[in-house]
Amino acid sequence: MNASSNPIEISFEPAASHCADLTPLVYRRLFDEHPETKAMFRTDGRDLVKGSMLALAIEAILDLAGDRRGHFRLIACEVVSHDGYGTPRELFITFFAVIRDTLRDLLADEWSIEIARAWDQLLVDIDALAGATA
Fold this sequence. Notes:
The chain is an all-alpha fold and about 130 residues long. It has six helices and no strands.
């Protein structure tokens, strides 16, 4: 199997060796930085909704940063859906920055300038994609 040259994809690969599940780390950061988001989720102890939401976000991120085969369009669909829940667009977009920041902390010294630049551009692309649905 060939190693990826995509910095976004590369940022996820070592994270998997640092932790089995990003879900608790991402949501802990989200709730710490944006306490108002905690009330937006039901607490069922299993975190199935959170895990599913994160998995779909990661799939969309990888597609947007990669081949753009269509999975990235989920971002535009979900921003509209979250509008219906009363989630401000800025907060919706912030979720992707929280994913980035969680990966950056996990990777520590493995986080490169190339990865940082790619994530900066990806967040700009996500913002444009979410804004295009306004």
